[in-house]
Amino acid sequence: MDYIFAVGDIHGEIEAFEKLLTHWNPDKERLLSVGDLIDRGTDPGAVIRKAMLLEAKYDAIFLRGNHENMLLDWLAEPRRKMMYYISQGGMETIDSLVRYTNTAKIMPEELAQRIENEAAAELAFIRNRPYYIEWNQFVFVHAGVDLELSDWKQTSEHDMVWIREPFQQGMNRTGKTFVVGHTPTESLNPDGSADIWYSPDRSIIDIDGGAVFGGALHGIVLSQTSVEKIYSIANKKEV
Q1: 3-65+131-234 fold
Q2: DSSP for 5-67?
Q3: What is the spatial distance between Cα 217 and Cα 231, in angstroms, rounded to a whole number?
């Protein structure tokens, strides 16, 4: 297709995601998410299942974020990683993937096994997420790349979902424009707004509006050379 509809970090905010999708034209635009579908939010499981349907029906692209990796890391070492994963919003994901109401009282190993058994399709989807997609002059990746490397494609998988300042403040000589999430834009914009952030040379576009924290869920329409449209779903939270 000639256009991409790129979506920022959803983090379980299914209602905001559904609202944003009303602006997407599937006949002309390929849907792409920069990752972090899960953790925190109102219903991470519903977001995963919606993503699975969109991939199957429209060949939508859902990239891997650090929170997808956090879930997989916890499943690999449920006892050792439990407290950290919970502190990062993992309980919301766990509760939305298992059909039990008292998950807090289940031992980590048993809880992980139940998720493996009951949410096998969802986990298979998560495990199959790519780290980046290159499309014309654009590169879509969750957090960024190592701009010090002679070939950005050699960036470690860890950095692709975790890097912040070295990428955001680095010199981009790749000839590519990077579309990322991961860092809520309120921490990058001088005015503290949740608006989309552009690096000074406009070669990095951050579309993580911090929706799960009361900001906005952004969607941008990209042609082969530029940003054509911006849609934002405000997601105010009760204080």
Answers
A1: Purple Acid Phosphatase; chain A, domain 2 (3.60.21)
A2: EEE---TT-HHHHHHHHTT--TTTEEEEE-S---SSSS-HHHHHHHHHHHHHHH--EE---HH
A3: 8
Rounded Cα distance between 126 and 134, Å, is 20
- pLDDT digits over 115-132, tens only? 999 999 999 999 999 999
- Cα–Cα nearest to 235, from 46, 16, 14, 21: 16
Q: Where are the domains of the chain?
A: 3-65+131-234
For the stretch 60-79, pLDDT in tens is: 999 999 999 999 999 999 99
Residues 126 and 143: their CA atoms lie apart, in Å, by: 17
Answer whether 143's CB lies under 8 Å from 180's CB: yes
Residue 5: closest CA among 237, 231, 235, 238? 231
pLDDT at position 93 over 80: yes
